[in-house]
Amino acid sequence: MTATERRTQAQRREGTIGALLEATVTCLTERGYAATSTAAVCAEAGVSQGALFRHFPTRQALLVATAEHVATRNVAAFRATTGGAAVDSVDDVADVLAHLRQAVLSPTNQTWRELLVAARADADLREALLPAREVLHTQMRDVAADLWGDRLSADDLPAVLSIVVNMLDGLAFSALDPDPAAAPGRTVERALRLLAELIVHRYPEQEPR
Amino acid sequence: MTATERRTQAQRREGTIGALLEATVTCLTERGYAATSTAAVCAEAGVSQGALFRHFPTRQALLVATAEHVATRNVAAFRATTGGAAVDSVDDVADVLAHLRQAVLSPTNQTWRELLVAARADADLREALLPAREVLHTQMRDVAADLWGDRLSADDLPAVLSIVVNMLDGLAFSALDPDPAAAPGRTVERALRLLAELIVHRYPEQEPR
DNA sequence: CCGCTTAGAGAGCAAGCGCTCACTATCTAT
DNA sequence: ATAGATAGTGAGCGCTTGCTCTCTAAGCGG
């Protein structure tokens, strides 16, 4: 009946671990941190609680593993969509910002944000997430440097990065409706356009003053 | 011994309700949403659980009342510090942004943010928070209009507002360390300066193009 | 002073939580 | 084939949660 039955131990292991991580991601995005109980994750993954606690000694370990599993994925995805894109005109930069907005609003990034918020109230989790945070941080710095490193000064680059990602993160937080269809009007588009102008105007050739 | 003993029923009522709201604020800011249990709030307020559930039918009712209690306070405080301030030069606007940053990072605003995040995973709470959200939103729009209404176009004003408050909110979320002393360097100052330049450059007289 | 209503106390309950443990199923090395 | 290791099950334990309920304390109108 069932097609592939015979699996090595390592395959079984990786299979359920992967299922658990994926289940944790979906639970976090659509239920939030508090409601992501071990029972809920196991139900979502189609696995018993014993299986979970065989591979992860504690709930927090599962969450940290999920964080690390998810942290760098979006940076890679964003790099893939904007690799080698031009950033000369305001329209070019606005394009990049639109892609970045999509990346920030993606479910995996939503997962990451949920964990960051929970870490604020939980010192242990905060410490456990620190390495992943640093990895993500340097990756974003690298992406920014690849995009604008030779156009913006060493002072402006981190400042622009801070403005853009914090603004998009804040946007993701204040957009309460979980479904992404609820469009908040064209204000956001206008805002991103202004940011694109800000960035291009900092280019040395056409610095406004 | 004890000085003022005789209190009318209304005084007693308002006293414990106020204590409960204050206790909820401090619990939310220093423990987070999940750990703000009714027991914790009662302990912080020096009141029994029975007292809490006499005045608030449910935990959520307490949280919503706290949200409404806190929502408009910061707008008023911000208005007080920047009332009638000049916004002509880049320095003027940077000053206003610095004050706004202080307001956004304040404990009561932290409380508000905690509730907003929790509302994302809880449909009931989301709906209950909606009126307060709208009040806050129009108040912020009014403040922005008072500050920059006659300098920025009707298109730019909401966009600028979105950039600034979302950026500061995102900053508050990603600054994980609960103590405000952990300075992330001068990047934020630089970022706010760039935003101030962006705003002033949108003034019609000196529009760059 | 006395009946009535409201404020407050605090033990206790059902439900859900993270996690354990005794057990079975499956793979692997001899 | 068989023994040992690893993967997976699911009942259940101790604990915390939001909330209820009974009871006492206190203000109020007559």
From TrEMBL, chains A, B:
<dbReference type="InterPro" id="IPR050109">
    <property type="entry name" value="HTH-type_TetR-like_transc_reg"/>
</dbReference>
<feature type="domain" description="HTH tetR-type">
    <location>
        <begin position="14"/>
        <end position="74"/>
    </location>
</feature>
<dbReference type="InterPro" id="IPR001647">
    <property type="entry name" value="HTH_TetR"/>
</dbReference>
<dbReference type="InterPro" id="IPR009057">
    <property type="entry name" value="Homeodomain-like_sf"/>
</dbReference>
<dbReference type="Pfam" id="PF00440">
    <property type="entry name" value="TetR_N"/>
</dbReference>
<keyword id="KW-0238">DNA-binding</keyword>
<protein>
    <submittedName>
        <fullName>TetR/AcrR family transcriptional regulator</fullName>
    </submittedName>
</protein>
<feature type="DNA-binding region" description="H-T-H motif">
    <location>
        <begin position="37"/>
        <end position="56"/>
    </location>
</feature>
